[in-house]
Amino acid sequence: MGASLSKKIEETDISPIIQEFQEFFSMYYKEEIEKMVSEYPKNKSLSIDYQILERFNSDLADKLINEPDIVLYAARDAIKDLNFTLLQNIKFKPHIRFFNLPGKDILIENIGSQHIGKLIKLKGVLTKRAEVKHKVHLAVYQCAFCDERTKVVVEPESPEIASCPSCKRKGGMVLLEDESEFIDIQRSECQELLERLKGGTTPARMELWLEDDLVNSITPGDTLETVGILRLRAPQLTRGKRKIPYIYTRYLEVLHVVKQKKDFEEIEITSDDKKEIVELSQSPTLYERLIKSICPAIYGHTEIKEGIVLQMFGGTSAKILPGGGKIRNDIHILLIGDPGAAKSRMLQYVSELAPKSVYVSGKGVTSAGLTASAERDDLSDGGWTLKAGALVLASGGMACVDEFDKIGEEDRASLHEAMESGQISIAKAGIVATMKSKTALLAAANPKFGRFDPDRSLADQFNIPPTLLSRFDLIYPMIDIPDEERDSNIAETILRSHQEASMGNVSIEDSKVIDSDTIGHELLKKYIAYSRQYIRPQMSEDAMSKIKNYYLKMREMGKQHGRIAITPRQVEGLIRLSESSAKARLSPIANESDAQRAINLVDWMMKKLAMDKEAGSFDIDSITQGRPRSQFEKFSVVLDAIRELQKKYDEVEIKKVIKETEEGFNMNPQETERIIQQLITKGDLYKPRHGIVKIVGED
Prior knowledge:
By secondary structure, this protein is α/β, with parallel strands linked by helices.
């Protein structure tokens, strides 16, 4: 790695650099230094804007980039030489932290050997964070032969002292830990920002080393702008206990780190793009074009595509209730239905289109991979490491989860908090932490028995608990029903899209408009990013009145039929959808038409999934509880009948239960049998022997 820092400083006359910094500090940072000194050691760092240094002395600024170790050493000496009275009785060891480096930050995948030892800046999302450890900063050695003591300032990758500087004997140098000085150090790992990745590229990663007052300042899932010195680490022992010679690993010794407040900052939007975005927002056929731009190769499903459009824009962010509680603005959508209905294709398309998105499949995902985890790995040398999962990494964007019904029961349980509160709480291995997961979830699920049956309850057909179903703002059935005209259009669309693809006419990365009715992929991505970053619409009085009247109408309808047609949770969903509709127009106000669009989508869903055919009315329990209230009532009738018979007889025959429910409540015998079987499956009943049932816990 070349000469050590101490040797470099000995060989370099740094006094001119110290004088330059003393003048620089006096001109620009006198108050900041005085404040740091008065608060020391609570405040140990001085943050300096690189652009100010460049205006002061461009040569010195260039030297900082190319020889950061020497310049930083001189800058620290310059502060110490100011001789503050407050520092006479303490060891003053300030940190000089530069930020706002010129030019674009380097992509992690483009960091190479030319950057070793240089000051660089990069952006990424933190994926792992290890425990805090303690590194020797000033080592005190004592020779076992001559008792001579030696102090050594430990530099990056400094080797241990092999021989005594005094008697020259080897093997007798002992580290005096009580007299040595230590500094906190924490290893972390960040990866390339999701919005920078192109078409399925694996994100590059970089190990970060944070020291002293920077430890525990960042959490997995945070988007970071980092300035640091690229270092090399000597070959390490492999699993076979052998070193691979000449192969070094790299890490970034972090000098300055700051969390990014806004999402999608890395989507570059030029002035020409902005002009095109504003022009597009004023199109009279905007919504039609947006809808047609979602999976243009898939025919139909207009309502589903419209819901996905609104989901990508999201509601108004950063809303806080008067009591201090936060309101989620992310819209969750679940696609359920028949195989081959293009659910997976739709999810994959959206994951490539939506800025900052992640695509995972439920078959191979665990709760650790989906949410967050605490694990042992090499980053913490066998200690515990906090790792961010897909929902944390996609915070502020979208997560597309295919095969949602295949996710394990324990893994699904971790989704409740993420979907409702936009955060994930971790309490594992003594690590207690909370991570952001403000992610819009687009999920797809298949029925247990192959095809979706509109006449059966959701709970019977999908391996998804009602508590999780109720978290979705929109649930869309995708049913494959034979229809000659529709089938002809689907076949024509598929054939044409394959023909164009084989001719090489269509590319998902095209930034231009494919035809007059659709919007180019890149322009649409920038349009969504611009809206989510800058537009925060408020509900107009007309829009609020529209939603209120719809809510009251639905509640009254439910009251007349003894059902719950809608709950306050759906009202919040309507507000999010209305705000999203306004964001799609780049409008600061969600008006009556936006509210009507939201109502139409919810109405469409209710007619498909929440219609109790027996009662002839809407019943939200079909979604929130998995089955309509009329079915719950029948379950209660059967249980009550068994309970009453159990009081009279030691053994309750199923045929007697069927007779009781048929005579007393006019229930169909086959339906009673089906309900008994479901109650046995749920664990409410058990069969001591064939033809006999008993209530669990009531023997």
